[in-house]
Write a structure and sequence with these properties.
By secondary structure, the chain is an all-beta fold. The protein has one domain (2-299): Neuraminidase (6 Propeller), CATH 2.120.10. It is built from 1 helix and 25 strands. The chain has one helix spanning 2-7; strands at residues 29-30, 36-41, 48-54, 60-65, 72-78, 81-85, 92-98, 104-110, 113-122, 128-131, 138-144, 150-155, 163-168, 171-173, 182-186, 192-199, 206-213, 216-220, 227-233, 239-245, 248-255, 258-262, 267-275, 281-287, 292-299. Strands 1-22-21-20-19 form a 5-stranded mixed sheet, with no helix packed on it. A 4-stranded antiparallel sheet has the order 2-25-24-23, with no helix packed on it. It has a 4-stranded antiparallel sheet with strand order 3-4-5-6. The longest helix is centred in the N-terminal third of the chain and has 6 residues, at 2-7.
Length: 300
């Protein structure tokens, strides 16, 4: 459920897991020994809630589904107060990231073209700006850095046409020529990017993650996983995301070469979607009843 809610159209990359880094070799995933305390997050009256991003101030953004229309709406929670986010005229809106200054990015779909995604920036003052990469059908925006750099992907109707993108001053940079790739997060200086892609070598589709430092592209996987999704990275280089084992989704935190599994209490599926510079992790989980909630997890 968290993936259907969040990624129906706008989340381009396949869900997966996280693992080994620059040298391609990492330690085994460490079983969770309750290093985090969890606080559930639900938008008031929503039937499902996913938290996608957090900034240094503790503001969180995400998406919720309402019971009346069954559509996705973005949201902001600041100082304990929830605010719904809907791009003007959109059928669905997804809030994916929030900058240190409080500007929000995400994607939206219009009623007459629901399968085409458009990115947006919403300033803290409440002004929307649409973000579209010229010459491509869809644009998905995942993160916004302090200097205005935008991360995400663009794609067309053709299979595997999606490519990870970095927009600097409105110009494309650091495009990844890998099938179904997407830049999901970066360190505040923008020098290290994490993302996901579909590795189709040997005739197989394998969801993997990558580090992009300059022009150096390094794939990685959580040891023993069938798929890996790196979804964010903070200033310290700590990476969060999710991985699949036996069709079960688990969140993870990677610090240096150590991976810690995140499974929210009572969850049958967990995804760690964002991390702040102080190490606070946000994400979503689905319980045995099929209900989806967001969470905030902090070190004990």
């Amino acid at each position: 459920m968290p993936h259907r809610l969040r990624r129906r159209v706008f989340r381009c990359a396949a869900s997966a897991a996280v693992g080994m880094l620059l040298n391609g070799v990492g330690s085994a995933v460490r079983a969770q020994d309750s290093p985090y305390s969890y606080s559930p997050v639900s938008f008031p009256g929503a039937v499902a809630t996913v938290v996608n991003g957090i900034n240094r101030a503790g503001d969180i953004v995400g998406v919720y589904r309402d019971a009346a229309s069954n559509h996705g709406h973005g949201f902001l929670r600041r100082d304990g107060k929830f605010t719904s986010i809907d791009y003007p005229g959109a059928e669905s809106t997804f809030a994916n990231g929030i900058s240190p200054s409080g500007d929000i990015v995400g994607s939206y779909g219009l009623p007459d073209t629901p399968d085409i995604a458009h990115g947006f920036v919403l300033t803290k003052q409440g002004r929307f700006t649409s973000v579209n990469v010229p010459g491509h059908a869809s644009t998905v925006v995942a993160r916004l850095l302090a200097d205005g750099t935008i991360l995400g992907c663009y794609h067309d109707p053709a299979p595997y046409s999606m490519r990870g993108m970095k927009l600097v001053g409105g110009k494309l940079s650091a495009v990844v020529d890998r099938p179904a790739s997407m830049h999901h997060g970066a360190t505040p200086d923008g020098k290290t990017i994490v993302g996901t892609y579909n590795d189709r070598t040997a005739g197989k589709n394998h969801g993997r993650s990558y580090l992009l430092i300059g022009s150096t592209f390094t794939p990685f996987d959580v040891p023993g996983s069938s798929a890996t999704s790196a979804l964010d990275i903070n200033a310290a280089g700590t990476i969060v995301g999710n991985y699949d084992v036996n069709a079960i989704n688990h969140g993870f935190v990677r610090e240096r070469d150590v991976y810690t599994t995140l499974d929210a209490p009572g969850a049958v599926s967990t995804s760690a979607n964002g991390i702040s510079d102080d190490g606070t992790v946000v994400g979503s989980f689905t319980d045995a009843r099929g209900a989806t909630q967001g969470f905030i997890a902090k070190r004990r």
